[in-house]
C-alpha cells in the first residue's frame, strides 16, 4: 500500500492550493481526484473575481493551478475515494483511504471534495449551464448588465441573490413552486421594496430555451395549469447545494445540510483530518475562500504531523 504524509481528497481550488502549500512545506503528498482537476471552477466560462487577473476562463485557471501544483512535484491520482477509515482515531496512526482503484495510507488527510448545486429537471437545464444558467449571482451577475434574468428558488439564498442581481440586471423575476417563500421575513421585506424584482409563485420552470445562449423560459403555473413564456438572458438556480461527504466515517461531525464541521484551524472532529473549501460548513463558497482554506489546512496538517510523528 502506498504511504503518504498527506492525502488530499479532491482536486478543486481548495485541494490544489493545499497541495502547493503542502509540497512547499516538504510533505510527501498526493491528490485523489475522481473527475477532472479544477472542480467546479471548470464549469464557469469566465472568472472575474480572482485577484490580479481581469478575466480568465474556469478551464484556464484550473490548468494554471494544476501546472503550478505539478511543478512542485504534486502527485495527482485519478481515483474516487470510497471510504476514509477511522479505526485509528485514538492512536492518531495512519489512516486508510479506500478508492475505486487501490487503497492508500496517510498520516493526515484534507477533505476538499467540494459540493454540487442541485438543479431542476426540465428541458435545457443541462444544456445551458455556463451559457445563461448560473448557480452563483456573486460570480456571474456582471454578465447580465441591463438584461432580464430569472431566479428559481424560494429560500434565503434565492432571495439574497435576487437582491444582488437587481443592482445589475434590468429586472429579476423570482419563480417559486410554492405559494410562499421559505426565506425569512427580513429577506422577503427587502425583496418587496425592490421595484425591479417581480415574483411568480405556485410555478415551475418547465423549459429553458435559446440557440447559443438562454433566450427565454417556459413557466408552468401549478394552480391554473397554464404555461407562459418569459424572455430572459440568465437563469439563476438556487434550489439547494449539497457536499460530497458520502465516504466519511461517522466520527466526522456533520452540520445541518451535510456540511463538515470544522474549527477555525479547519480541524474536523477526527484528529489529523482537516476539511477545506466548499465541503465545509461556511458562509461563502467561492474560489478564493476555497483556496484560502486549502492553504490553511495544509499548514495545519504540517503542524499536526510535526507534533504527532
Ligand atoms: C457554474 C459555477 C460558476 C462559478 N463561478 C465562480 C466564479 O466566477 N468565482 C468564484 O469565486 N467562484 C465561482 N464558483 C464557485 C467555485 O467554483 C467553488 O466555490 C470552488 O470551486 C470550490 O472549490 P473546492 O475545491 O472547495 O471544491 P470543488 O471545486 O467542488 O472541487 C472538489 C473536487 O473534489 C472532487 N471529488 C468529490 N468527491 C470526490 C471523491 N469521493 N473522490 C475524489 N474526488 C472527489 C470533485 O470531482 C472536484 O473536482 C462557481 C461555481 C459554479 C458551479
Short description, anyone?
By secondary structure, the protein is of the alpha/beta class.
Topology, element by element:
Blueprint: E1 2-9, H1 13-24, E2 29-33, H2 58-71, E3 75-78, E4 81-84, E5 95-99, E6 103-111, E7 115-117, E8 133-134, H3 137-140, E9 148-152, H4 156-166, E10 171-175, H5 185-192, E11 197-200, E12 203-210, E13 214-221, E14 227-231, E15 234-237, E16 241-243, E17 273-275, H6 287-308
Written description of the protein model:
The chain is elongated. α1 links the parallel β1 (2-9) and β2 (29-33). The protein folds into two domains: 2-116 and 241-308, FAD/NAD(P)-binding domain; 119-237, FAD/NAD(P)-binding domain (3-Layer(bba) Sandwich). The longest helix is centred in the last third of the chain and has 22 residues, at 287-308. It contains six helices and 17 strands. With 309 residues, it is α/β, with parallel strands linked by helices. It binds flavin-adenine dinucleotide (FAD). Flavin-adenine dinucleotide is lined by residues 9-15, 32-35, 39-41, 43-44, 47, 49, 80-81, 112-115, 117, 130, 134-136, 139, 244, 247, 277-279, 285-288, 290.
